[in-house]
Design brief:
This protein is α/β, with parallel strands linked by helices. Helices cover 53% and strands 12% of the residues. It has helices at 4-14, 19-29, 49-65, 82-93, 107-117, 127-135, 165-183, 185-192, 203-227, 232-257, and strands at residues 34-40, 43-48, 73-77, 97-101, 121-124, 145-148, 162-164. The strands form two sheets. A five-stranded parallel beta sheet has the order 4-3-5-6-7, sandwiched between helices. A two-stranded antiparallel ribbon has the order 1-2. Helix 3 crosses helix 4 (82-93) and helix 5 crosses helix 6. The longest helix has 26 residues, at 232-257. It is globular.
């Protein structure tokens, strides 16, 4: 059985990844490995790395649903608990920035930290933390939603910005399912298209679709970085090179579909962006 010590030794010898990518990698390699334990009502409850990464993806999708984008800030005010870590990894997974608040921060400091960081979402542990932000809510125009972990004492509150952790997760699940459907849209369309010859829908064809989605992801990221002025020359040179690969994949697909325009061949497939694929 793999141990955390072994994973730490790998990081020391091979170099580290971002926390979100490391959780994703560990979930893929050791899905049943225990990531966290929490004691509830005298009983220890376990969360595996597979569950950790899955819930983090749901949080990321819910954040995007409410308009959180790359480099936006999301605040967390809570004691040490699983929801804190899941939120943090979900925030990082979409390229946003986590802003940690101490549970002991008074309302004035909550207002300063959330306002100064322009955080769009606050994850708040319980009624105590929710009360603090509600007290200064008028000073926080950028704050879209307050996600609370514990509902005790809050369910009677009437504020449209309040949403429970479970409700937030459910939104994330639905958005995640929609994103997965977008990712496989072209593959399904082509595989189910009765007008196409079955022998041309082969592994090369499917790889071409995946490579196209992969290139789109990298090109969009590079162009966004260039627009922000980040190393413009190198970003545009890389984009130019990626466009060549992208066009090759498009040509491969169009050979099969006969130049038809009814396929979403430019869909974003974020889950494929770390794959190394060639044909």
């Amino acid at each position: 059985m793999v141990k955390v010590k072994q994973l730490m030794q790998e990081i020391e010898t091979q170099g580290g990844l971002t926390p979100a990518r490391k959780i994703k990698e560990t979930a893929g390699r050791y899905p049943e490995l225990i990531a966290m334990r929490e004691k509830n009502f005298g009983k220890w409850e376990e969360i595996t790395y597979a569950e950790y990464w899955q819930q983090s993806q749901w949080i990321g999708c819910a954040l995007k649903y409410f308009g959180v984008d790359t480099q936006d800030s999301v605040a967390i005010q809570s004691e040490n608990r699983p929801e804190w870590f899941i939120s943090d990894v979900g925030i990082q997974a979409i390229g946003a920035v986590s802003v940690g608040l101490y549970p002991t921060n008074p309302p004035s400091e909550v207002a300063y930290l959330i306002g100064h960081s322009e955080s769009k979402i606050l994850f708040a542990e319980d009624q105590e933390q929710v009360d603090k932000v509600l007290e200064v809510l008028e000073d926080l125009p950028s704050l879209i939603k307050i996600v609370y972990f514990e509902s005790r004492g809050i369910t009677r509150y009437e504020n449209e910005k309040l949403i429970s952790w479970d409700e937030f997760i459910e939104i994330g699940k639905k958005e995640y399912e929609k994103e997965i459907k977008d990712i496989v849209h072209d593959i399904n369309q082509i595989l189910l298209d009765e007008t196409l010859e079955r022998d041309v829908v082969d592994g090369d064809m499917i790889r071409a679709i995946i490579v196209l989605a992969q290139m789109n992801t990298h090109i969009w990221v590079n162009e966004d970085n260039a627009r922000r002025g980040d190393n413009v020359g190198n970003q545009l040179m890389l984009t130019h090179g990626l466009n060549g690969i992208r066009n090759t994949a498009i040509n491969k697909i169009m050979e099969v579909v006969g130049g038809r325009k009814d396929y979403k061949i430019d869909c974003l497939a974020a889950d494929f962006k770390d794959w190394e694929i060639s044909w």
